[in-house]
Amino acid sequence: MSGGAYNYAQHSILDIIDKLEIVLEQQNQPNPDYGKDIWEPEFLAEDPEEVLIIIKEGIHALKRAYIFAQRIDWYLSGDDGKESLYRRLLEELNELENKNEE
C-alpha cells in the first residue's frame, strides 16, 4: 500500500463521508421499530431541507479534503513526484466536480 506519511489518517475522512451519506439515505424512510416503543420516531430521519443542503455541501468539501490529503500523502511518502502530484490532484478534483454536476 502506498502513502502512509501520516498513518493513513485521511481514511477517517472517508468514514465521516460514509456516515453522512447514511444520514441522507435515511431521510423520510420508515423506521422499522416505529410503534414498538413510545420513543421511536416514525421516520429514521426528518431533517429540514436547509440542513440537508449543508450536509451535502459538507460531503463535497470532505471529498475534496480527502483528495488533497491522499495526493499530498503520496507525495510526502515518495510515491509521487511533484509532476504526478499536480496531475493526479487535478484529475481527481475534475472527476469529483464532473460527478457533482451529474
Write the layout of secondary structure elements.
Blueprint: H1 11-25, H2 49-76, H3 82-101
Helix pairs in contact: 1-2, 2-3
Distance between the termini: 31 Å
Based on CA atoms alone, the radius of gyration comes out at 18 Å
Number of domains: 1
What overall form do the CA principal axes indicate? elongated
Q: Which residues sit in consecutive blocks of at least 5 with pLDDT less than 50?
A: none
Order of helices and strands: HHH
Structural class: mainly alpha
Work out the helix count. 3
Biggest sheet statistics: none
Number of strands: 0
- Level of helix content? 55-70%
Beta-strand portion reads: under 5%
Mean pLDDT: 94
Describe this entry's structure for a reader.
By secondary structure, the chain is mainly alpha-helical. It has one domain. 62% of the residues lie in helices and 0% in strands. The protein has 3 helices and no strands. Helix 2 packs antiparallel against helix 3 (82-101). The chain is elongated, with a radius of gyration of 18 Å. It starts with 10 loop residues before the first helix and ends with a helix.
